[in-house]
């Protein structure tokens, strides 16, 4: 059993803002760069360093540590060893925990992906750190650091504080903060001691199948389908093509196997902020709306006039999508010809 | 055979009582969330874990014990798990647990699972109320056990004292083998939870009475509750609905015009 943390944590001994750079096979999860941007603001406000952490194998060749510097990190801590590839919660947790105990960061940001949410607790529990889940707002006020997160399916926004424990950790929802562009940084890269032995691990990855990971968080236009589409995504694809949009879906549509899980919008999926969000055959459950609420304009197509999605839409049409979609596509094609 | 030389696995499934998400209202005077009106129900994703626990028992033998930390009336969710087919249920109930964030909550469940000599402890992906998803990895971390989260499918490997899982990862899936004991979080909606049979339901409602454990019984009375919780809820704002036009259009042509205006 992990030891109970020190009751009197020396708060001042903890400095700097850390950002976990999540990478798999040399591909960086977009949320990591978003966090580096937000982390830069927080570190500047505190007058402290922004530190990026990268774990994996053959990282130098990947160019990721350099890119972290170019995107704003003052320092990059690199743990390079085959034990970190592919990702495993126990190996990552043990190494990360060691670094936290040794160097005492004040704030730690981890992307709220499956990977980030998987291992964050393996750091927070043994260090007795506060861990806020799925944050969407981070703010340093004159009194304290405040992490805000949706709760009750998005009906409420809770402010979480961590007055007596350090570090103040959070997982952060992807797609919420802007990615900083790549400049020309002059930070330092440090190879850290690897403390994980393969024999210590309690898990083994037997097989891993990963295709291209779609990223819908930056899309300008999104066409999303729900159960009302009944598996017929063809017309949505045509509409998406016409509007130069990314396809997305509800959790139920993902579970039905109609659309790639990386394209799920909502509480347990992605947060998107497009200029236009077209919701087709989507009821508008709170867990879905939470992920698309920041869209500038929302259009809904649903055959039930009482579907909650209409309350969350700017323009709605009550009708069967089998009829509405072909008509809409035709109208847009006509516009295109006319333009 | 597990490491104790007995047949089958000790399977523990964590079920949480939450306010019915459909019923949570906002107090018009204070703007605060009113949870007391809402009916208390079992966290929806936990039905998937109970189902997974029962399927696992069918495959490897052993027992399924439902475990819940909560107020006395939370025994209702244990009864529900027993009605679905769990062999027994334990309620960890104590004022000392009040105000616990995920650190002590996962410590309490980890201690309960260890007390039950669990080989596998199953939980849901996240809850519908505070939805952190931090408890299952927290259980693993407190007990220094292996963990498997976002699990779509379980394949027990009793010969090697391992549990193999197909996990959902960004862009695909992976199969991971974990040594026992292991903490598992099932992906929400991955299986179809069975409905309770009539006899089992009657038993659960009339005869079943869960054992109750206090923090002291587990020897963790100084390690739970508000005082050891690193996070605190510093305030709660009701999320303002985003203002929308809410205009109904009559034809697809009109919709196309609106789209053209926006883009
Ligand atoms: C912990 C938790 C997390 C969750 N996370 C998410 C999440 O991240 N994202 C998410 O989306 N959901 C999430 N959900 C699920 C959510 O609660 C809803 O179940 C889901 O969003 C509903 O999906 P849907 O709108 O596709 O389906 P339904 O609710 O079944 O709605 C289908 C709609 O289509 C309409 N329709 C039917 N036929 C037609 C037709 N021919 N033409 C036009 N319209 C038609 C119907 O009127 C209905 O409104 C979560 C739930 C929980 C408990
Ligand atoms: C608005 C709000 C926001 C909060 N935010 C945070 C936060 O950011 N960080 C933090 O550390 N704490 C937070 N808390 C405290 C946290 O909600 C409690 O610790 C809670 O008891 C467990 O967290 P959860 O419901 O998120 O569990 P999750 O981790 O989402 O639950 C996953 C699974 O664990 C099991 N489980 C969880 N709790 C129990 C239980 N009591 N009994 C049996 N099984 C259980 C279930 O199988 C469940 O499906 C918050 C509380 C509120 C009210």
TrEMBL record, chain A:
Biological-process GO terms, alphabetical: fatty acid beta-oxidation using acyl-CoA dehydrogenase
Keyword Thylakoid in annotation: no
Cytoplasm among keywords: no
Residue ranges occupied by any Electron transfer flavoprotein alpha/beta-subunit N-terminal domain in the UniProt entry: 17-209
Keywords per UniProt: Electron transport, FAD, Flavoprotein, Transport
Top-rank taxon: Archaea
InterPro entries: DHS-like_NAD/FAD-binding_dom (IPR029035), ETF_a/b_N (IPR014730), ETF_a/FixB (IPR001308), ETF_alpha_N (IPR033947), ETF_asu_C (IPR014731), ETF_asu_C_CS (IPR018206), Rossmann-like_a/b/a_fold (IPR014729)
GO MF, one example: electron transfer activity
CDD domains attached to this UniProt entry: ETF_alpha
Family: Belongs to the ETF alpha-subunit/FixB family.
Descriptive protein name: Electron transfer flavoprotein subunit alpha
Organism encoding this protein: Halococcoides cellulosivorans
Lineage: Archaea, Methanobacteriati, Methanobacteriota, Stenosarchaea group, Halobacteria
UniProtKB/TrEMBL annotation, chain B:
Source taxon at top rank: Archaea
Disordered: region residues: 230-256
Residues that span the membrane, as ranges: none
Pfam families, sorted: ETF (PF01012)
Protein name: Electron transfer flavoprotein subunit alpha
Gene3D superfamilies registered for this protein in UniProt: HUPs
SMART domains cross-referenced by the UniProt entry: ETF
InterPro entries (UniProt xref): ETF_a/b_N (IPR014730), ETF_b (IPR012255), ETF_beta_N (IPR033948), Rossmann-like_a/b/a_fold (IPR014729)
Residue ranges annotated for the Electron transfer flavoprotein alpha/beta-subunit N-terminal domain, each copy included: 30-222
GO molecular function: electron transfer activity
């Amino acid at each position: 059993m992990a030891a109970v943390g020190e009751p009197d944590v020396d708060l001042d001994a903890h400095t700097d803002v850390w950002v976990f750079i999540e990478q798999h096979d040399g591909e960086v999860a977009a949320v990591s760069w978003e966090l580096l941007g937000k982390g830069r603001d927080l570190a500047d406000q505190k007058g402290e360093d922004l530190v990026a952490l990268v774990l994996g194998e053959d990282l130098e060749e990947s160019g990721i540590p350099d890119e972290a510097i170019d995107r704003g990190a003052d320092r990059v801590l690199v743990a390079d060893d085959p034990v970190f590839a592919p990702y495993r919660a126990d190996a990552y947790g043990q190494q990360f925990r060691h670094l936290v105990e040794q160097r005492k960061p004040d704030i730690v940001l981890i992307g709220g992906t499956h990977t980030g949410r998987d291992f964050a607790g393996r750091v927070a529990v043994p260090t007795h750190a506060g861990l806020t889940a799925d944050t969407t707002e981070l703010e340093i006020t004159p009194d304290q650091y405040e992490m805000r997160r949706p709760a009750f399916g998005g009906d409420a926004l809770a402010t979480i504080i961590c007055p007596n424990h350090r570090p103040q950790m959070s997982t952060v929802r992807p797609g919420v903060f802007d990615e900083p562009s790549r400049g020309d940084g002059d930070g330092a890269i440090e190879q850290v001691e690897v403390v994980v032995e393969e024999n210590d691990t309690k898990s083994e990855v037997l097989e891993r199948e990963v295709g291209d990971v779609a990223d819908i968080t930056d899309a300008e236009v999104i066409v999303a389908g729900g159960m009302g589409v009944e598996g017929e995504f063809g017309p949505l694809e045509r509409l998406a093509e016409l509007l130069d949009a990314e396809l997305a879906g509800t959790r139920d549509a993902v579970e039905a196997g109609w659309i790639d899980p990386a394209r799920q919008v909502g509480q347990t999926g992605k947060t998107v902020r497009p200029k236009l969000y077209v919701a087709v055959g989507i009821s508008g459950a709170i867990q879905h709306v939470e992920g698309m609420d920041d869209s500038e304009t929302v259009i809904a197509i649903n055959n039930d006039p009482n579907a909650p999605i209409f309350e969350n839409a700017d323009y709605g049409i009550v009708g069967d999508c089998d009829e509405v979609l072909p008509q809409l596509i035709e109208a847009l094609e006509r516009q295109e010809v006319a333009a | 055979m597990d490491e104790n030389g007995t047949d089958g696995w000790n399977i523990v499934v964590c079920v949480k009582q939450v306010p019915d998400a459909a019923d949570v209202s906002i107090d018009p005077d204070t703007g605060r969330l009113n949870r007391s009106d809402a009916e208390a129900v079992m966290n929806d994703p936990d039905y998937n874990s109970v189902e997974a626990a029962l399927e696992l028992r069918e495959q490897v033998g052993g027992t399924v014990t439902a475990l819940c930390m909560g107020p006395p009336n939370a025994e209702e969710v244990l009864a529900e798990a027993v009605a679905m087919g769990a062999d027994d249920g334990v309620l960890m109930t104590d004022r000392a647990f009040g105000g616990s964030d995920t650190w002590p909550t996962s410590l309490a469940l980890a201690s309960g699972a260890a007390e039950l000599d669990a080989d596998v402890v199953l939980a849901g992906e996240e809850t519908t109320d505070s939805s952190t998803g931090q408890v299952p990895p927290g259980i693993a971390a407190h007990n220094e056990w292996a963990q498997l989260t976002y699990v779509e499918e379980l394949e027990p490997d009793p010969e090697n004292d391992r549990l193999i899982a197909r996990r959902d990862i960004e862009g695909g899936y992976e199969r991971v083998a974990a040594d026992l004991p292991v903490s598992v979080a099932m992906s929400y909606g991955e299986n179809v939870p069975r409905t309770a049979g009539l006899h089992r339901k009657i038993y659960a409602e009339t005869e079943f009475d869960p054992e109750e454990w206090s923090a002291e019984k587990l020897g963790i009375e100084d390690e739970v509750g508000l005082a050891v919780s690193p996070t605190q809820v510093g305030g709660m704002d009701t999320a303002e609905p985003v203002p929308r036009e809410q205009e109904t259009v009559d034809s697809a042509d009109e919709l196309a015009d609106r789209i053209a205006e926006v883009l």
